[in-house]
Structures are given as structure tokens and as C-alpha cells.
Write a structure and sequence with these properties.
Elements (H helix, E strand, L loop, with lengths): L1 E6 L3 E8 L2 E9 L8 H9 L3 H7 L3 E6 L6 H14 L4 E6 H10 L4 E6 L3 E6 L4 E3 L5 H4 L5 H13 L5 H11 L3 H9 L4 H6 L2 H6 L4 H18 L10 E4 L1 H5 L1 H10 L4 E5 L3 H7 L1
Parallel strand pairs: 1-4, 4-5, 6-9, 9-10
Antiparallel strand pairs: 1-2, 2-3, 6-7, 7-8
Helix pairs in contact: 1-3, 4-14, 6-11, 11-13
């Protein structure tokens, strides 16, 4: 049995595969070694439905995760996984970006992108990532992500840049004061997740031109700052992630405005990763 995982900062998809066929799928909270210690990740893993799968026996685990950069962070994730699945299980920890590239491009050259809670991109040669413009996280980067969209929305609402009906609807929905929001973003854990959780509100209000323009500018910034720099307009761009999937009309519009070609948009890379394995 092989267990394949795609984990973002918010949620993780797990697929148990036997001889190329998916026999079980579950979803858990996300894991990110930049935001969680190995001990914290072990506790979360053991408290999830994964323990039952681990007890049944897994021969190999391919874990593609946010924050799993080569070195200390990926090893921290691997240690947490071995604590649950045992040393007999062959644990492979790779970045979520490599997972997206394998899922979207398989063994072909292309540009692969992630638009979820965070965002990222890479140039893939069919076997490995050959160039990666750094994502830089939700404070310095992550353009086009749920966190970036949420950050723009909150800033525009608090600075009176949104129509009154949008502002009123926002405060009705979040049920928070200005002080509460500042505390949520600057003092509470996982502010990127909270900002990304505002994405459904944005989607429901795209009929307002100010909201639509804000979202389109976010996706345009993503392609301008993270894709155009590869200087490969001959390559098609594939995207994966909840934001890419649910905003695909605006994502495609932003790409086309910059002369880029979209090849595929998928909500999750799991199906592509099962095929790749």
C-alpha cells in the first residue's frame, strides 16, 4: 500500500493507493513545518483518522507539503510521519510545489502553479523543478492566494475603499470589531488561514465591481511577479488549488491579459499524483 498526501497550511488530502488504484481517501487539517513543531505535528497526526490507516500497514508514504523545503523543515515533517507510521514505512517528503508540478505536468515540461491558502510557482523540466521564484509567504508575497485576497479585502474595508453594502456585509459576517481584526492578524496563530477563510465572502460579492477588480488585480500580480519572470511564454501554465479552481474565470482572464496560456486548472493534485506514481 502507498499513501499519497497533498498538504497545504489549511488542509491535507490523503489517498491510499493499491496497485495504482485509490482505495481510500480522507482529509485532515494541514501541516506546515514552518508553523508547527515536530511534536505538534505528531499530536495532530495521531488525533486524526490517519492512525487507523497507519495501523493497517503502509509500505511507502509520499508526502508533498507546504513548507517542506529541503533540509531541516522536510526532515522535521519526516520525523513526525515516522512517529506515526513507523520506521518500516518508506517516508518521502517533498515540497507541495514538486507535487503540483508532477500532478499537472506529469513527465512534460511546463510551468506549474499553486493558488490556495498561499501561492507558489515553478518551472518544471518534466523530471524536476529547475527554477522557482520564491513565494515569500503571506506578508511579502503569496499574490493571488486566499491569504492575499483576504489581506486585500480587510485592508480595503478598514480603509473605506469598498462600497458601503460590502463593508456592512463583511462586518455582519465576521462579527468582529477593528480591534478584534488587528488582534486576529497580528497576535493570534495562523493569521494566513483566517485571511484565506474570507475567500468565500469575496466570491459571493464578485458582482460588485470593486471586489472583482481587487481579485483580478491579485491574480494579475501573481502572474506578473511569479510567472512572467521565467521568460517562457512558449510554455503552458497549469494551476492547482482551491483558489485557482473557484476563481478560474478571473485567473484565466488575468493570464490571458498577460499573453499566457492556461493548460489546466485542478482543485487538488491528488488524482495527478496517483497517476504519476
Amino acid at each position: 500500500m502507498i499513501l499519497i498526501t497533498d498538504s497545504g497550511s489549511t488542509k491535507a488530502d490523503w489517498a491510499l493507493v493499491d496497485k495504482g488504484v485509490c482505495v481510500s481517501r480522507i482529509q485532515t487539517c494541514g501541516f506546515n513545518p514552518y508553523m508547527q513543531t515536530a511534536d505538534e505535528m505528531v499530536c495532530r497526526l495521531k488525533d486524526s483518522a490517519l492512525q487507523k490507516i497507519a495501523d493497517s500497514g503502509v509500505d511507502a508514504l509520499w508526502f508533498y507539503g507546504a513548507g517542506c523545503t529541503p533540509g531541516e523543515k522536510s526532515e522535521s515533517m519526516a520525523m513526525a510521519l515516522r512517529a506515526v507510521f513507523g520506521n518500516e514505512c518508506a517516508v518521502h517528503v517533498e515540497s507541495d510545489m514538486l507535487g503540483a508540478a508532477r500532478a499537472l505536468c506529469q513527465n512534460h515540461e511546463g510551468i506549474a502553479c499553486i493558488l490556495g491558502t498561499g501561492s507558489n510557482s515553478c518551472l518544471y523540466n518534466g523530471q524536476k523543478i529547475v527554477a522557482n521564484i520564491p513565494a515569500l509567504g503571506y506578508i511579502l508575497g503569496d499574490e493571488g492566494s486566499g491569504a492575499h485576497l483576504g489581506k486585500l479585502l480587510v485592508g480595503n474595508v478598514l480603509k473605506n475603499q469598498m462600497p458601503r453594502e460590502v463593508t456592512e456585509a463583511f462586518f455582519d459576517e465576521v462579527g468582529m470589531s477593528l480591534t478584534d481584526i488587528i488582534d486576529k492578524v497580528y497576535r493570534q496563530p495562523f493569521p494566513n488561514r483566517w485571511l484565506a477563510s474570507l475567500s468565500p465572502f469575496i466570491r459571493r460579492n464578485l458582482a460588485h465591481e470593486a471586489v472583482r477588480t481587487m481579485a483580478l488585480e491579485s491574480f494579475t500580480a501573481f502572474f506578473t511577479r511569479n510567472v512572467v519572470g521565467y521568460q517562457r511564454p512558449d510554455l503552458a501554465v497549469g494551476l492547482v488549488g482551491s483558489v485557482a479552481y473557484h476563481y478560474q474565470e478571473l485567473v484565466t482572464e488575468a493570464a490571458h491579459n498577460l499573453g499566457l496560456t492556461i493548460s489546466v486548472i485542478e482543485q487538488s493534485p491528488i488524482h495527478g499524483l496517483i497517476k504519476w506514481n
